[in-house]
Design goal:
alpha+beta; Beta-Lactamase; five-stranded mixed β-sheet; 6 helices; globular
């Protein structure tokens, strides 16, 4: 069921969670931050951080498989193409009365508008990369990434 409130929340998250800068070192630190917290919680997720289309960080925890690698890559391609969270893209298509798979005309083997990959948006620049996970239900994948990006930014790791 499409949800206008969810779409507004997803949009607000992207407006609020912006980086001051995003270097390769920042990408590595962000990946380590997400990995450490997922490991601490015992979550079976694959973690991926990209700067542009370059995969800077990738790690898979117990409970994942090569399928999670493919999922996170497919979701990252959606973020690269649309400049917004993979979950937001899928929800936008649903709110507009269709599905991403039906309406986007993109190959579902390469693109997945499911929750879990969030854009890295630099203030005054725009989207420059992505951070994502795969392994949980899509809403949980998305919520985990948002929570950990928020924590990362709150601690000033993007300085």
């Amino acid at each position: 069921m499409p949800d206008d409130d969810l779409l507004r929340t997803l949009t607000e998250q992207e407006e609020r969670l912006t980086f001051r800068r995003f270097t390769l070192d920042t990408a590595l630190d962000l990946g380590q931050h997400v990995l450490a917290e997922a490991r601490r919680r015992g979550l079976g997720v694959t973690v991926s951080v990209r700067k542009g289309t370059q995969r800077v960080f990738h790690a898979a925890l117990p409970g994942t498989s090569a399928d999670n690698d493919e999922w996170v890559d497919r979701k990252a391609r959606v973020v690269e193409r649309y400049g917004t969270a993979s979950y937001r893209v899928g929800e936008k298509f649903r709110v507009e009365g269709g599905t991403f798979e039906q309406k986007s005309r993109l190959d579902p083997e390469l693109y997945a508008a499911h929750g879990g990959v969030f854009p890295v948006i630099v203030e005054g620049v725009g989207p420059v990369g992505s951070v994502g996970v795969s392994g949980l239900p899509q809403a949980d994948d998305h919520a985990l990434v948002v929570e950990l990006v928020e924590d990362f930014l709150a601690h000033g790791y993007d300085s």
